[in-house]
Write a structure and sequence with these properties.
The structure is a homodimer.
Chain A: E1 15-19, H1 20-33, H2 49-57, E2 62-65, H3 68-76, E3 82-85, H4 92-100, E4 105-109, H5 112-120, E5 125-129, H6 144-153, E6 157-163, H7 174-195, E7 199-202, E8 216-217, E9 240-249, E10 254-256, E11 271-272, E12 275-280, E13 285-289, E14 298-302, H8 306-310, E15 315-319, E16 328-333
Parallel strand pairs in A: 1-15, 2-3, 3-4, 4-5, 5-6, 6-7, 7-8
Antiparallel strand pairs in A: 1-9, 9-10, 9-14, 10-13, 11-14, 12-13, 15-16
Amino acid sequence: MLPRVTAVADLSTPALVVDTTALARNLDTMSAALPGARLRPHVKAHKCTELAREQARRGHTHFTGATPREILGMARAGLGDDLLLANECVDPVRLRALADCPGRVTVAVDSDATVDAAAANGIDAVLVDVNVFLPRCGCAPDDAPRLAERARGAGLDVRGVMGYEGHAVLVPDRAERAALTAKAMERLARVAEKVGGDIVSAGGTGTYDLNTAATEIQAGSYALMDGDYGKLGLPFTRALAIAATVVHVNDRWSVADCGLKALGMDHGNPAIDDADVLFCSDEHLTFTPHQPARVGDRVLVWPAHIDPTVAYHDRMHLADGPGVGAHVVDMWPVDLRGWDL
Amino acid sequence: MLPRVTAVADLSTPALVVDTTALARNLDTMSAALPGARLRPHVKAHKCTELAREQARRGHTHFTGATPREILGMARAGLGDDLLLANECVDPVRLRALADCPGRVTVAVDSDATVDAAAANGIDAVLVDVNVFLPRCGCAPDDAPRLAERARGAGLDVRGVMGYEGHAVLVPDRAERAALTAKAMERLARVAEKVGGDIVSAGGTGTYDLNTAATEIQAGSYALMDGDYGKLGLPFTRALAIAATVVHVNDRWSVADCGLKALGMDHGNPAIDDADVLFCSDEHLTFTPHQPARVGDRVLVWPAHIDPTVAYHDRMHLADGPGVGAHVVDMWPVDLRGWDL
């Protein structure tokens, strides 16, 4: 898609801006560490089929999604070689749409209800989702073999197991992160043996090089990064900011037009380089720049959490470098947003 | 717009659900307190022209918006009698679109740059936005007369002043809220005298009956309410929830499909009746229900902050009462989302 303007400084704001140099470096670094099918990139982090295409170009053609819409969008974009809905779903309309979509779809199951819904609505293949100490989805380890049997009895191909060590991925201390991951994967490996199948799917950006037990890693955030993952000392750099315009300046603070409706706020305030962020309102960000700002200036706002930030925006603008002086070279729709089929 | 299903319990989730009984009561209560032009409803809270139409039917035909898109959307929907952009804008393309739109548009100005941008791009009328102790936009009180003169010199109609006591609207103690409001409005009234014009625009849901100095109140949240405003003892009740489906149950917690991409999180976790919310992930909400849940059950999730919650959703479903047993009677697009013109 052709961008409307050619300079980051001319974008109507707030606007997502991707530094293509940093993005390419992140994608290449991860591909070197986890080549081909060792990585099953999670599209929930960017919700963008064009970005997924860059991941596929680097050899990762199996993808992870968190919603039926993400899976369907990927299949319709021709990226449906091997799609995993790493989430539980009992909506018959959505499951039927996944079963009928132009791609190979596997869904996670962790209960009788999710197995039965998958089987009743034409799904071919499942992974048994096992709780590995994150208090969220996943069956009890002891229940996994029974669920696998129930699935096979209903005609489903049980391709293996998954288990997300989400409680570990953001732990700052690497040794502690490694220990939590090892404990989680020990449990998952034990279950995998009893369940059967080839796949042990797990992991995230924070454990991509620590989780050696899984056959595939579901990392997503590494591509664009964010404030929280930035604290872990990983070899990935921040690649996505929000361009904002300064709309008010006084001698004590300044205000930019990037607020709560442009930012995922669950991990707290965003950051601005050479400035302190005070607070965000619906359409405003109040901050104190270390150098005086002027009304009309552009600033880059770095979100604390990428995933829910991207989900607020229609598109991301591709820039040929960092900073507001870069040129806009392309525009990618954030086309996997929302929940509609 | 016709809803796809007729029962809240049949909606694909997550889905915004409005209790029309509570909404009508909220709208009527506010209209009785602030009839006609005493209220200038703020559409940023709901971003929905159909809801604005309900406010207009009750006699409030002057509206407030926070973005050019909100103002343009209102004008195009035939709700452009008197629209106030209660925000600073220096984007020439957006200002020109406001100047050319089929409605009467007034914009806030608080600096030379915003006055000059308004005048240069065909805007007819402005309010001088005065800082009334919230650290955000608004000029210094002493600077307001000079800005008004500059605006009049550039051919702009200076209709009066605005000043938002946003630091007061959510203060729990009513007496303290009243005192902060009085102090802010004392400053604004003093400036209004020097600036001239008929309008003193201020206020919000939390100060709607305390701010007697303003000629018009910019309240928006009162229509749908949310967790934070719900703590103030106002005569408005919560009218918007998110219907979610339980996708996982075990003997210690349950998980519903309403996460960070369906919820404004700046005010913290949402609530579920008869349950404790533990945490939210991108597409999950982990909670402990007081009564056992089953996979497939529907629950209503009450957001802590309405405005950034609504901004994640394409539409709101209108229900004929509270609870998941209600019927869906209509569907309203959230058509003022985003920032595109």
